[in-house]
Write a structure and sequence with these properties.
This protein has helices at residues 39-51, 99-115; strands at 2-15, 18-23, 26-32, 55-56, 62-64, 72-77, 119-122, 129-144. With 148 residues, it is α/β, with parallel strands linked by helices. The protein has one domain: D-tyrosyl-tRNA(Tyr) deacylase (D-tyrosyl-trna(Tyr) Deacylase, Chain: A), CATH 3.50.80.10. The strands form two sheets. Strands 1, 2, 3, 6, 7 and 8 form a six-stranded mixed β-sheet that branches. Strands 4-5 form a two-stranded antiparallel ribbon. A hairpin with a 5-residue loop joins strand 4 (55-56) and strand 5 (62-64).
């Protein structure tokens, strides 16, 4: 499982010309799953995301978590996080988990984040989404369950 965490001033998800989700401040997450991922990875990464201390405190140090700054989450499913572009120019996606399995883990991940008291908004799984956000810092953290 991979999660790209981006600190966002604002973020929104548009599907078919309509805004389906929007946050004013917090984390813009891209979430992807690979074959063999389980609920253990989901729980491990949700705990890591909720506890990340990447917001600045009164001393301008990255020391505060999302809940400490009353931030929200925009969580977007992103199978292309498991693209393999090592051969040629057209990426392959055989390492990405099939949609039927991935949607269950994606929903579980979002529920797990909510269990920490976070406000979580989502895109539409499998849809052609247009994502807009303003990255603050810029701060971008890449989390991979295989490395935790």
């Amino acid at each position: 499982m991979r999660v790209i965490v981006q600190v966002a001033k604002d973020a929104s998800c548009e599907v078919e010309g309509k805004i389906v989700s929007k946050i004013n401040f917090g984390f813009m997450l891209l979430v992807g799953f690979t074959n063999g991922d389980t609920l253990d990875e989901v729980k491990k990464l949700a705990k890591k995301v909720q506890g990340l201390r990447v917001f600045t405190d009164e001393n301008d140090k990255m020391n505060l978590s999302l809940s400490q700054v009353n931030g929200e989450v925009l969580s977007i499913s992103q199978f292309t996080l498991y693209a393999d572009a090592s051969h040629g120019y057209r990426p392959g996606f055989t390492d990405a988990m099939r949609g039927e399995e991935a949607v269950m883990l994606y929903n579980a991940f979002n529920k797990e984040l909510e269990s920490y008291g976070l406000n979580v908004y989502t895109g539409v799984f499998g849809a052609d989404m247009h994502i807009s956000f303003t990255n603050m810092g810029p701060t971008t953290i890449i989390l991979d369950s295989k490395e935790l």
